[in-house]
Structure formats: C-alpha cells, structure tokens
Amino acid sequence: VTFTNPLEIVKIRLQVAGEIQSVRRPAASEVVRELGLRGLYKGARACFLRDIPFSSIYFPAYAHTKRRFADEHGYNDPKSLFFSGLLAGIPAAGLCTPADVVKTRLQVQARKGQTKYNGLTDAFKKIYIEEGWTAFWKGAGARMLRSSPQFAFTLLTYELLQRSLNIDFQGRKLEGSKHVDQEQYSPKIRSSIILSTNSDHVGGFHLAQATFEGIETRFGLAFPKYKSSTSKDSTSLIPPLTSLLGVSTPQLINPK
Asked: Repeats (Solcar): which ranges (predicted)?
C-alpha cells in the first residue's frame, strides 16, 4: 500500500477525468503536481483497510483450495493451481468491497454539488446516511471479475517459475510440486513407501522412514531389512520383525 497508493489515486483521477467533456483531460504529471506528496497518500488508510484483509482471506483460502485440488499424491498441475487462485480471489475481493468503495470516494476529486468526505470515518458515515448499506457493495461483481483472474495468473506464474528454477526457500520445497518426489522416488512409489501396508511395519513407520533414510545416507549405515511374516519362503534365514520384537502372532484355529 505504501508504494501503490500514489499510483491508485493518480489512476482514479485519470479515469474519471473524461466525465466532463468540456474539461481538458490532464496528464499524469499534472495530477501528481496538483496533489503533492501528502495528496498522493489520500485514502491510504482505506487502502490498508482493503488490502490487508484481502491478503488475510486470499492466501489461506488459496492454500486450502490448492490442497483440495491436488491429486492423490499431493501434486498440483497448472490447471488446479489456476482454479485455486481463481476461487480464492472471489471471497477475498467480494468481502473487501466496502473498504474499496470508501477508498475510491476519498480519492476521487469531488465535483461541484457532490458530497465531500473528510477522512475515513466521515466517509463511512456520509455514505451510510445518504445511500444506505447497499452503497458499500457497489461494484462487488466487477471487483471479483478483476481480482480473481489477476491473482490466479499471479500465483500460477509464481509457482511455475519456482518449479522451473527449482528454488528452495528456507529449506522447504513448494507444496504440491513434483520436484519433492523426483529427487529420490516418483510420487507413486513415494506414496507407497510412506503409506506402507506391510504387516511387519511398526506403527509410526511413515514418520520414522525419512529419519532412517537420513541416518543411512549421512553415516553410511545400513539397517537390517526384514521380510514380511506373511512370506511363503519358510526356509529364509531372515526372521520376521514381529518375532524379534517378541510380538506373538495369533494362530488361526480350525473349527471342527
């Protein structure tokens, strides 16, 4: 907001300059000179009131929607990334419309006979008294149609660039990226290891597996491998893990 509010107010002034045909349309430099440094930050509080809640709604909604659209291995293709960003932008843009209405009213230059607003609180009061609650939701549909595709393309571009460059931020790979599994296993094989159905695997295996792999790699160790207790190879010298742990295997009783 600190960097974009001056651009917002100049954009709005230029967009409404053509309402009166007899008035010459000003250049952007003329608007900046007329407003001055302090004038460029008119409506900044309303802009904060719009953009901070927008981000707090959008990014958690995007993260949850992205996880919902991922495939069975947790991978997101470009289409699922785009639709996640698109859907997350709808509530974020729609719910922040009142702050956007107030910001626009503060930043537009009042014409003769139009209501003048003196600050954030004054604008809220006057809009409510003169036009009612519905005035705060004017342009909500247009905001959703603008912001949803904008942020969908933004996040899609960000995620695909991070994957193509294989950038690692703070030791964590981007969630839903295939790079996580391509380093050692394919997504399918990785999933089968973490969610093993082997009867000899002790509870918590999916948590310990990564740790054991790291120890073997870093210290050059090789942990013993055990065959399943359901194996038909009775001559094997490798005992099942259940017997080594002292866990009794229930025997099936033949009913007579």
From this structure: 1-68, 76-164
Please give the pLDDT value at position 87: 96
- Write down how long the chain is: 256
**What digits encode the pLDDT tens for the residues 179-217?**
444 444 444 444 444 455 555 555 555 556 556 666 666
| pTM exceeding the 0.85 threshold for the entire prediction | no
- Which residue from 61, 84, 51 is spatially nearest to 158, judged by alpha carbons? 84
| Dist CA 76 CA 173 (whole Å) | 13
Instruction: Pick from 105-119, 141-155, 161-175, 190-204 the range whose average pLDDT is largest.
Output: 141-155
Residue type, 87: L
Query: C-alpha angle 216/219/225, rounded to 5°?
Result: 30
The CB-side HSE value for 152 (13 A sphere, CA atoms) comes to: 21
Question: The tokens 């909500």 sit on which residue?
Answer: 140
Residue 113 zone, left/alpha/beta (φ > 0; ψ -120 to 50; rest): left
Q: Which of 171, 145, 169 is nearest to 159 (CA)?
A: 169
With beta carbons less than 8 A apart as the criterion, state whether 123 and 46 touch: yes
Among residues 16, 14, 11, the alpha carbon closest in space to that of 114 is found at: 16
Per-residue CA distances from 184 to 25, 124, 193, 200 (Å):
62, 57, 12, 24
CA angle at 206 for the pair 200 and 212, rounded to the nearest 5°:
85
Contact present, 40 and 107 (Cβ < 8 Å)? no
